[in-house]
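Troubleshooting entry. The earlier prediction with 4-fluoro-L-phenylalanine gave an output that would not parse, so I re-checked the input for stray whitespace and re-submitted. Clean input:
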Amino acid sequence: MTRESWHTRLGFILAAVGSAVGLGNIWRFPWMTAENGGSAFLVMYLAIVLLVGVPGLLAAFVIGRRARLNPVGALYRLSSGSRSWRGVGLFAVLTAVVLLSFYSVVGGWILRYFVASFTGAYFGSPGAYFGSIDYGVPAVGFHVLFLALTALIVVGGVRGGIEKATKVMMPAIVALLVALAAWATTRPGAAAGLSFYLDFDAAYLRANFLDVLRAAAGQALFTLSLGGGTMITYASYLDDDRNLAADGSIIALLNTGVGVLAGFVVFPLLFTTAGGLTGPAKGGGPGALFVSIAGAFAQVPFGRALAVLFFGVIAFAALSSSISMLEIPVAYLIDEHDVDRRVATGTLGGLVLVTGSANALNPGLFGFVAGTLVNMMLTAGLVGSLVFVGWVLGKDAVAEMSTGAGPGVRSLGPAWLWSVRTILPLFLLGTLAVNLLALAGVSLPG
Ligand code: PFF
């Protein structure tokens, strides 16, 4: 069976950015930022994206392109048949299924808001509206709809579906966010939101260092789609002439740009129309975006049209990420068990239909899965990839990252390998430990 590959270089970058840019940027990033000191969180998050995210992306790309396989097959074959490494790959596949199980529920909320925006159904009382649709049977219905859309694109395959879809989605997302940001930042009172978002708060950071650290680290991995096997899988469709480090930097830059841009939409709105952090968004939580932003649309001219645009953009962004989650286990079944793409997609779709419904029916389960569990699984997964690249591939990894790269990138190879072997996994294990302590109820010193 000949393996598919990306049609164009832009196709890979767009698809990877499409995976990275999603609910993580627009729904989770503002929520995490609001809960962790605004600018203090922003600075920490940007630093981790740069120092851990970019070299981590490169590690995932090296594994994927070298093996040209899904994460399970990749780790198994590149380790010359080690069962333990196969297990690490299977963990990534499992992580993708867990991710999609909550992501599809939030995607369903977005679809619901998109539809409701045409009539302004939630304009009267945004908080009560969200409370009436967030969990339960209607949430299951919209989760199934979102999942079905995801599966339809994945059935189309890498070139036919994913590449084509993201080529249209990505420019549309950026254009609409820029327009919305221009509108939001010129609202009267927007300055308070911008100041919370941008004026660096060193005192807050000092007082809450470990909490900000673990939130920012989890968010950085989540937003870059790192640790769940997505980037390994997408890079497996790459040819040798691509410069992995350059592609990784572009992807991180574009993704982070969209997240930061989303902040320019969300924070001015939070402070102008939702009463700042003491308004309905206080305390964050999964409903923060919906209650505050939806409430803002209720109060502005052309609110319905703007809301349709806004939720339409987010639906696109969410879909281009959810397809990257479903593609991981699908690629695994195709590569390792010779299953037909349609059968693989149908089987996994059926599984996530059930696990996602459990999340849609149980807010406690949803909160745990969407927050702590996913953070920890992604972190553990990335530690696995880094240790593999650093200690199993070693010099071969440097050779792989050098393939298609210029002399400048090649000269960075040894330093990159050193960090992948030592400091990056240690840092991530540290954040994992902090998460475990928090989970165990130990209160963290600043
Ligand atoms: N990066 C995506 C977002 O920000 O919405 C979420 C994501 C996709 C995480 C794929 C992990 C993943 F493997």
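This one parsed fine. The pocket of 4-fluoro-L-phenylalanine is lined by residues 19-20, 22-25, 96, 99, 222-223, 225, 228, 230, 321, 324-325 (CB under 6 Å).
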